[in-house]
Amino acid sequence: MATDALLNRKVVRVPDVVGRPLTKATILMEDAGLPRVVTLYRESYEDRDTVLEQRPTRGQMVYDTTEVTIWVARRGYLENLPAIYRRSDGVGRNLVRDVCFVFEHMFDSVEKNLNDGWRFYDPHVSPVEFLDWLASWTAFTVDLDWPEAEKRALIRRSVDLYRIRGTKRGLALFLKLFTGHEPDIAENTWPFKGFRIEADGAEQGARVALDSVILPPVELAHCFVVTMPIKFESVTPEVVIRIHQIIQMEKPAHTQYYLRFAEEKGDVELREFFSIGLRSGIGIGAEVVEGEEDGGSSTTPSSGGKDKS
Prior knowledge:
elongated
């Protein structure tokens, strides 16, 4: 394994980043194939985070696993101390300055987070690990398995979705953001009538017993049907599960829903599955031919009129 890693190394040219800002210098190194960049600070009166020196120097051919060290300009914490601590000894050394640079290297990430704190509140650039926390501000729930791009798009519109949460418009918008398709939502309807015994009148159902029910009654006022304009064969089981999760999160708690997908249109004859009392017939159209007792031939009516002897 180690031998294969050594053989697969690439040789790249080190770009020139001296005089550039630290962020651009890091991007140039990564684009050149050198992702391992170490940043050190050096006291200088140049603009903050300007690259002063780099090793290896520009133009050198190195392996892509080589660590690149760059020195950037910083005034250091020493400028915030009284002037007596800024004095150097006979050879130009200052112990306080060196200690301040050690602390600056240690707490640089904290200072960077304070300066770039606005990024944690922007769903476009917020770190991935903070997306769930940002979504919780509007009681918005995101699935850990959702694609990152879909997470950021939904969180960006979470305030608008919260205003219309639990409505037909909100559910349609939520499904469109995730699937990319505009669903058709029909309210106060249900695709099945169910099977009941003892309806409101004798003409509507068989009176077997009082209050006899095979399936519980469906309250149409609390039902809706979601139709996705895509075929069921073209989606994966994971997508179907997530669509159900979205509907369950956004629908009112007391409602029931039915999810269906687009079907192919064709000349299909729809027939009742089971009917009693509607054109019921047994043996209609069947012809029975009885044979003669002597075991001879059977007699059938001829189309010519008389029998020939």
